[in-house]
Design a protein that fits this description.
449 residues; 6-stranded parallel beta sheet; binds uridine-5'-diphosphate-glucuronic acid; alpha/beta
């Protein structure tokens, strides 16, 4: 099938690359001409495991192409994925102006009827508005535009694997033909007939993937409801951690045992600095806002948001207690990305830590395997080091902010010799408190003694 992808950000690139790898002909477009030129030259503008490999092979095989001519891209696709940004507005609502802009482009540039698939995360009812806009902008053209909602459940860092091995594929449609087309687009994934770039063709046996056909409103709601629930779960674990500190219990023992109940599940119960990234904080806000507009008070989500915002303060209570005065102290920050295996620093709790340290006059020495170049432009006053041991040199404290494996595997005996003081404040609960104390460290983490 000929597919167009409008918007070559994170979601657009992963979607385009994976669908090309699965056998479709994909043309991608973006208003950022520099990005298109980069992609045409074979450069991958984001860090995502496996993405460079599949983009390279798809480009070589002629399965993917890039153009800054949106009209050309729109005309080439039987189905068009809209993957543009929906950033939050001041009031928490999603800014849908990019979607509206693309709707106008599709309606005016198309020369044949199209299936328009909303992939960007949007509040419920956006699909219906999109259809209305397409109809209005294409008045008298004689073309028809069908609309589908196909929310993505990709996690940064494992997005390619998530695309090829999804838990579920959700498709919101208004008619049988759209359902049939969506099934055709995802047929290689449903039938597992693709050559998996993650497992080199030898995927572990797994149960068949479900393609869930719903209404457009439901599909949109499923996305926000899922992300908000996961955010809620993390905040719940964080409150349990606070309680453990007061009562003298261990949050890992508690959440591990809770998670063994399949009704609860073990994932997303890791306590620490809280959630960040471009999805959870903004989706939570948008969902609360959406509920408010229809008169439903989503108090539990407001509480989850509040709990999350307080994590940085709680972390700094620990830092202050351990260091007393922060001003003038040399402090190592391990981790800048909002989570491991990504270079994304948007709404990163680690960067909030950096900002607060700088505000209080600390000398910050930071390390991160992928996020240094992005952080440099935001915080040029920080001394950045590729090697975490260089960041620890002469530091009076190490603040662990992102759960990268390289930090998990650090040799603290070696690090201790480099540091001015053996003090670790761990915002991600990466180490055993007993082991750290054995090594002569003063060690603080969340919800553990
Ligand atoms: C999230 C969802 O997990 C995806 O399913 C969804 O498709 C995506 O948003 C999206 O809407 O596009 P992502 O933002 O990549 O994916 O990151 P997550 O792995 O979900 O982590 C989010 C944040 O929660 C990170 O800051 C992470 O450190 C934090 N977290 C996660 C915890 O603090 N504790 C946990 O137990 C798990």
């Amino acid at each position: 099938m000929h597919l167009s992808v409008v918007g070559c950000g994170y979601v657009g690139l992963v979607t385009g690359a994976c669908l090309a790898e699965a056998g479709h002909d994909v043309v991608c477009t973006d208003i950022d001409e520099k990005r298109i030129a980069q992609l045409q030259a074979g450069e991958v503008p984001i860090y995502e495991h496996h993405l460079d490999k599949i983009l390279e092979s798809a480009l070589k095989a002629g399965k993917i192409s890039y153009t800054s001519d949106a009209g050309d891209a729109i005309r080439k696709g039987d189905a068009i994925f809209i993957c543009v940004g929906t950033p939050p507005k001041e009031n928490g609502d999603a800014d849908l102006s990019a979607i509206d802009h693309v709707a106008r482009q599709i309606a005016t540039e198309a020369r044949s009827s199209k299936l328009v698939i909303e992939k960007s995360t949007v509040p419920a009812r956006t699909g219906l508005e999109l259809r209305r806009a397409l109809t209005a902008y294409s008045r008298n053209s004689g073309l028809t535009f069908r609309v589908a909602s196909n929310p993505e459940f990709l996690r940064e860092g494992t997005a390619v694997s998530d695309f090829f091995h999804p838990d579920r594929i959700v498709v919101g449609v208004e008619d049988e033909n759209s359902a049939r087309d969506m099934r055709e687009i995802y047929r290689p994934i449903l039938e597992r007939s693709f050559r998996c770039p993650v497992h080199n063709g030898t995927c572990p046996a797994g149960s068949a993937v479900d393609l869930l056909i719903t209404t457009i409103n439901s599909a949109e709601l499923i996305k926000h409801a899922s992300n908000s629930f996961l955010a809620l779960k993390i905040s719940y674990a964080n409150v349990i951690a606070d309680l453990c500190e007061k009562i003298g219990a261990n949050v890992e023992e508690v959440t591990h045992a809770m998670g063994l109940d399949p009704r609860i599940g073990t994932q997303f119960l890791r306590a620490g600095l809280g959630f960040g990234g471009f999805c959870f904080p903004k989706d939570l806000q948008a969902f609360i806002h959406l509920a408010g507009t229809v008169g439903v008070d989503f108090d539990i989500l407001k509480a989850a948001e509040r709990v999350n915002k307080q994590r940085i303060d709680k972390f700094f209570d620990k830092v202050r207690q351990a260091l007393w005065v922060i001003k003038g102290k040399r402090v190592a920050v391990l981790g800048l990305a909002f989570k491991a295996n990504t270079d994304d620093i948007r709404f990163s709790p680690a960067l909030e830590v950096v900002r607060e340290l700088l505000r209080q006059g600390a000398q910050v020495q930071a390390s991160d395997p992928e996020a240094i170049s992005r952080s440099k432009t935001l915080y040029p006053a920080v001394a950045y080091h590729e090697d975490p041991y260089d960041a620890l040199q002469g530091a009076e404290a190490a603040l662990v902010c992102t759960e990268w494996d390289v930090f998990q595997d650090l040799d603290w005996e070696r690090a201790g010799k480099l540091m001015a003081r053996r003090l670790v404040i761990d915002g991600r609960n990466l180490y055993s408190p007993a082991r750290m104390r054995e090594l002569g460290f003063e060690y603080y983490s969340f919800g553990r003694e």
